[in-house]
Amino acid sequence: MSNIETLKAPESLKKFATRIRISAALLISVMCVFSATIMWNSFSQARNSVSQHLQTSTSYNEHNLTRTIEAIDSELERVRSAMGTIHETEALNRVMAEVLQFSPHLRQILVVDNTGLVLADTARNFYSSQTPSRIDLRALGITEKNMRSLGSRMRIGEAMAGRFIGPASHGGAPSSSWFLPIALLSGGGDANQLNVLAAIHPIALSPNLHMAVYKEGGEALVTHLDGRVIYSSAELKSGLSPATQQTISQETSGRFLARDADLFRGAMPRGQDTGVVSYQLSKIYPLAVVIAAAENDILQGWLTDNVALVSISISIPFLTALIVTIFGIQAIQKLQLYEDVRILSQAVEQSPASIIITDKNGTIQYINSAFTKLFGYSSEDVAGQTPRLLKSGHISKEKYQLIWQTITSGQVWRGEMINKTKDGQLKWINAIIFGLATNEKEPEYYVGIETDITLQKEYETQLVQEKMRAETANIAKTQFLASMSHELRTPLNAILGFGQLLTMDAKDPLSVKQQEYTKIIVKSGMHLLELIEQVLDLAQIETGKLKLSMESVALFDLCKICQLSVTPQANNRNIQMNIDVPPETVVWADAMRLKEILLNLLSNAIKYNRDGGSIWITATALDNAKVRISVTDTGDGITPELHNKLFEPFNRLGKEGSVVPGTGIGLNITKDLAQAMGGEIGFDSESGKGSTFWVDLPIANPQLMS
Q1: Contacts of 670 (CB under 8 A, 6+ apart)
Q2: pLDDT tier at 133 (50, 70, 90 boundaries)?
Q3: What's the pLDDT score for residue 704?
């Protein structure tokens, strides 16, 4: 047998656990960076793919735009060539009609001079040809200097609401269409120089523009070089409406003539989002195609196409953490197990309580230092022994059998016993004995935890003896008080009687001074008689000889009687008394004892009140079928530190040397009387504001009170 050794966790295991934590943190961090790198590279590739798509789309749409305007330029050049030097001929009208017929992107063709006078118009059927009409080229956004195209006399104006240019726009059915004016100018300042105008449908410039939009948040536009929007994919989607002066962001238009690449990341053309913007300028005409993709759309597209990659990348750090946790937790748990065993072994060894452990046969396996200190046996002394070596002979065989039956059945035995130390001393101990099951079946070890209570037992014996002596003395005191009270009351009554006779002797009257002395004798005798009566009541209460005659008592009438009894005392100090008691209030009490309680409370309310003060007697029905009788005064109140001493007998709370008479046992008797009648007593007091003493008594007729 050997004691439990103090276990220490190996330093190498501690260092290993620390390395595991550091390595796990580093490995998880590396895996997080690795996963983030994979996803970022994949997303960058997706962005590059979207960028290439935007570049291809802008180049394609710019090519279509340029080819379309070149075709319009060629057709308008054909009309200009047919004009010759005449203002309007059949040949010119025929050429204009043929060009309009075979050019679906043209809606109207006009011939005007430099003053704006309309000389020929394919839409003349919509207005009177007799009325001369003029067109303001500047109002159409067409001037000699306005955004001149490269290598051509063509000018592109502002997008306008309506179907036709000039007077034809006022004829025909109302329309919400819009058009883009294009002019082929003569280039001279002579008023007779002729110019060709045309109204084209804006969508004809790039009919496949809406197909270049990347997802819902993207946008494609055809704009002037100054940023004014001709039309956009959003307008195609919602239906063409009369043109408004919309402008793309300066961040985009400001790069049109820059020398860097035509793909950049910035605000969307309308400033909606931050994404990728691609633009392509027409190689001949002052127009640009702008296509943008929103960042959110790029991200959503990448997530949709790479669900598996994202899932795996996110899972890598978690799987790494899980694997590291599984392998690392075992080492940490082993370290914690060593630490727990070490703490438990120290707790058992250093416990102030005596601890003894035996095997299932009762052979002692372990004792702690407190056992050795208590009983004097060392580990070598108890080797191979059983707890019988502590047997004192003061415990019965039946009690030992009961202890053994209790612990072998898996229960805990608690109790007191007397054991013997190595040097033969007897020790009272408080023991807890229980079985310790390691295989969750029957106990394989038994543990005893013992505390020395020898001094406590000695104190208890002394207390019992002292209590018996105190009770004997108290009984003797009570009997003495009762006997002396009876013995004192007889001569005292004689003194009071003769004193009163002296004051009433009319035949041989006393002198004034003798009368004053006689009054002092009577007053002091009455005070002494009151004290004797209170001592008698206290003796009867303490000896249990107090007899009560319980009955229904009309509270209002009793309060009036008590008020009349103390009225002379109240009048001496000019104290006003008030009664607020319902006439129907009836309590269950001893009338004489209840009167004694009320007189005691009223007497105190007068004695400790202020001159000219007030007293209230009230009664309130409570929810517990009781009535609360309260006596409230306007005196100085009771300080909080004296509240817990108020009902102590013969304690006047520091008023012993004052002029206020009293014995200090009135409230104590009042409390005992109230409790004897099944009631309770209490008080509420605030220093400087007076006090309220109350007594709760049962209602004799609860239905009447309710």
Answers
A1: 596, 597, 600, 601, 681, 695
A2: confident
A3: 46
Alpha-carbon distances of 202 from 33, 157, 167, 179, rounded to whole Å: 51, 12, 20, 6
Q: What is the pLDDT of residue 412?
A: 92
Q: Rounded to an integer, what distance in angstroms lies between the CA atom of residue 305 and that of residue 215?
A: 14
Amino acid making up residue 58: T
Task: Check residue 704 and report its DSSP letter.
Answer: H
CB-based contact 135:112 (threshold 8 Å): yes
d(CA 356, CA 382): 10
Which pLDDT band, with edges at 50, 70 and 90, does 151 fall under?
A: low
Using CA of residue 28, residue 31, residue 36, residue 37, what is the dihedral sign?
positive
**Angle at alpha carbon of residue 116, lines to 111 and 118, rounded to 5°:** 40
- Cα 477 to Cα 36, 112, 528, distances in angstroms: 95, 143, 19
CA pair distance 354, 95, nearest whole angstrom? 126
* DSSP secondary structure string for all residues of 397-426: HHHHHHHHHHHHTT--EEEEEEEE-TTS-E
Rounded CA-CA distance 234/213 in Å is 9
Q: Which two tokens stand for residue 28?
A: 């998880």
The owner of tokens 């080229």 is 137
Q: Mean pLDDT check: name the lowest of 8-12, 146-150, 619-623, 679-683.
A: 146-150
Amino acid at site 275: G
- Percentage with pLDDT > 70 across the chain: 80
CB proximity list for 134: less than 8 A, separation 6 or greater: 112, 115, 116, 117, 118
Q: Specify whether the CB–CB gap between 529 and 537 falls below 8 A.
A: no
Confidence at residue 21, expressed as pLDDT on a 0 to 100 scale: 76
C-alpha to C-alpha distance for 490 and 364, rounded to whole angstroms: 77
Q: Quick count: other Cβ atoms within 10 Å of Cβ 224?
A: 22
Q: Is the pLDDT score of 656 beyond 80?
A: no
List Cα–Cα distances, 622 to 559, 695, 696, 698, 704, in angstroms. 19, 12, 9, 10, 13
Domains of the chain are: 1-350 (3.30.450.20), 351-448 (3.30.450.20), 459-537 (1.10.287), 547-705 (3.30.565.10)
* Higher-pLDDT residue of 69, 329: 69
| H or E element at residue 518 | helix 512-543
More confident residue, 415 or 324: 415
Residues 46, 276 contacting (CB under 8 angstroms): no
Taking the alpha carbons of 621, 622, 627, 629 in that order, is the dihedral positive or negative?
Answer: negative
The amino acid present at 583, given as its one-letter code, is P
Q: Are 108 and 91 spatial neighbours (Cβ–Cβ below 8 Å)? A: no
Closest CA to 654 of 614, 606, 611, 608: 608
Compute φ and ψ for 495, nearest 5 degrees.
-60, -45
Band of residue 432 on the pLDDT scale cut at 50, 70, 90: very high
- Residue 380 token pair: 């070598």
Q: Distance of CA 13 to CAs 212, 325, 328, Å?
A: 65, 16, 12
DSSP 377-399: --HHHHTT--GGGGB-S-S-HHH
644 or 594: which carries more pLDDT confidence?
594
CA 462, CA 456: separation in Å to the nearest integer? 10
What is the C-alpha separation between 526 and 520, in angstroms, rounded?
A: 10
Tell if the pTM clears 0.85, that is, is over it: no
| Structure-derived torsion over alpha carbons of residues 339, 340, 344, 350, reported in degrees to the nearest 10 | 30
Residue of 64, 568, 603 lying closest to 283 (CA atoms): 64
CA distance 405 to 397: 12
| DSSP calls for 227-251 | SBEEEEHHHHHH---S----B--HH
Between CA 193 and CA 199, with CA 198 as vertex, the angle to 5 degrees is 150
